[in-house]
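Notes for week 9. Today we move from apo structures to complexes. The key idea is that a small molecule is not decoration. When we ask for a structure prediction with zinc ion present, the ligand SMILES becomes part of the input, just like the chain. The input block below holds both the sequence and the ligand string. Read it once before you look at the output, and try to guess where the molecule might sit.
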Amino acid sequence: MRTFGSLLVRGLIVGLFAGLLAGTFAYVMGEPHIDSAIAIEEAAGAAHTHDANGQAVPADPEEEPLVSRDGQRFGLFLATSLYGVALGGIFAVGFALLTVGLLLVLAYLVAFDQGAISQSGMYLHELMHDGRHLLGVPCH
Ligand SMILES: [Zn+2]
Ligand SMILES: [Zn+2]
């Protein structure tokens, strides 16, 4: 018997692994291209920013980026991991809610259906008739 808590924890763990996998893929396949793009920009000496009129002006060569490249590489894994954990948890809760929804439909079909949902006429009602009386739900 899986509790909701263990289901949620499994979703979070699987999401973490999926996020780390996505981060590893992006790190291996994407980061080298970003590094070479930055190298091209820096080699061209074209680092510039824009003034209030939209005119290009040389950037301050001493200006440090807000987050370093190493920081951004760490942030890549942080982002994919957190996103994976979030989606894993959301899917686990969604799965639990879907299960609850299906069980509610089942309880409805046993206890309250008069043919409108089941499209069986009074068949389910009469089939479950004695049980419905035992369960104390309305008859006709
Ligand atoms: Zn009845
Ligand atoms: Zn009856």
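The mean pLDDT is 88.
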